[in-house]
Amino acid sequence: MPDDYQIGSDVEWLKHSNEELARLLKKRDRHIALLRITLLLALGALGWAVWKFSRKAPVNELWNF
Has residue 51 been placed in a domain? Predict the structure, then answer.
């Protein structure tokens, strides 16, 4: 049974290959964007937690600055 990717002329195969690559790149870009948003939210939550904690017990006093 022939491979579906090898059926057709070289031009058809190249077109299909480019479409496949475009889909993979788009999927990768979406994952990278989601990761950036997740990291931004996590950093914001961490910053907020540090800010809240530092209001109760200032970091300068804890580290003897």
Answer: yes
